[in-house]
Amino acid sequence: MAIIIKTPEEIAKMRELGRLAAEALDYIGDFVKPGVTTNELNQLVHDYHVNVQGGYPAPLHYGNPPYPKSCCTSVNHVICHGIPDDKPLKNGDILNIDITIKKDGFHGDSSRMYAVGSISPQAQRLIDITHQSMMAGIAAVKPGATLGDIGHACQQVAENAGYSVVQEFCGHGIGRGFHEDPQILHYGRRGQGPKLEPGMIFTIEPMINQGKRHLRILDDGWTVVTKDRKLSAQWEHEVLVTESGCDILTISPRTGKP
């Protein structure tokens, strides 16, 4: 599969879908508190995509085995692809909600970290450094840079803070397809890999572990957890390579902040 350079018309649609994804994350954050279940959050996301935004949750029935829910909810030591369930969230938990909306044949994909009640300074530091890792990767995006430049930037921030980078999962191109080329690794060496060109759209979504990078996948075929059961965090933005740098397509409409 080749890297798809988006047309101006496709870029306009992707800007709209990125905004919808960010709006959904703004919306669901108001409901994250001790006592709520991730199943309840999942239903709220589903209904918001369908009834308010006029779209569809792309994760639902995606993949093999088919993913059973409308968003991913990864709590504490879950790295990614956590399946919503009926266990109430408790004070001190950290939660990643990863949503992808599909509408008019295009996709919008983003994730954020949420604190459940009052969290520990150690958990907050992990969340903050992971966000810094993502933003460092985004800062490396410009025409003529390479995919390795992005990965190196993400990795340096995480490892300099004493954390580890998950290597088995990565960002991805996105557009008419949920997952397109290229794969965006969150580790790497400067100058390596394909060069970036205006019109590329992809996600940068580092998964950063408090302990070692090693993981295991649970029997449900989806849930990925840290092998040492230490905390993990993830943030995800969609970026468009422009003539002079990049635009983040999934900035929060509510706060205006990435």
UniProtKB/TrEMBL annotation:
Gene3D superfamilies xrefs: Creatinase/methionine aminopeptidase superfamily
KW Transport (keyword) present: no
All copies of domain Peptidase M24, residue ranges: 13-243
GO cellular component: cytosol
PROSITE patterns: MAP_1
UniProt xrefs under Pfam families: Peptidase_M24
Catalytic activity field: Release of N-terminal amino acids, preferentially methionine, from peptides and arylamides
Any single biological process term in GO: proteolysis
Binding of a divalent metal cation 2, residues: 109, 172, 205, 236
Signal peptide extent: none
MF GO annotations: initiator methionyl aminopeptidase activity; metal ion binding; metalloaminopeptidase activity
Domain of life: Bacteria
Binding-site list for a divalent metal cation 1: 98, 109, 236
Keyword terms, alphabetized: Aminopeptidase, Hydrolase, Metal-binding, Protease
Enzyme Commission numbers on file: 3.4.11.18
Sites where the protein binds substrate: 81, 179
Cofactor(s) recorded in Swiss-Prot or TrEMBL: Co(2+); Zn(2+); Mn(2+); Fe(2+)
Co-factor remark: Binds 2 divalent metal cations per subunit. Has a high-affinity and a low affinity metal-binding site. The true nature of the physiological cofactor is under debate. The enzyme is active with cobalt, zinc, manganese or divalent iron ions. Most likely, methionine aminopeptidases function as mononuclear Fe(2+)-metalloproteases under physiological conditions, and the catalytically relevant metal-binding site has been assigned to the histidine-containing high-affinity site.
NCBIfam families: met_pdase_I, PRK12318.1
Family membership: Belongs to the peptidase M24A family. Methionine aminopeptidase type 1 subfamily.
Assembly and binders: Monomer.
Function recorded in the entry: Removes the N-terminal methionine from nascent proteins. The N-terminal methionine is often cleaved when the second residue in the primary sequence is small and uncharged (Met-Ala-, Cys, Gly, Pro, Ser, Thr, or Val). Requires deformylation of the N(alpha)-formylated initiator methionine before it can be hydrolyzed.
Name of this protein: Methionine aminopeptidase
Organism: Eikenella longinqua
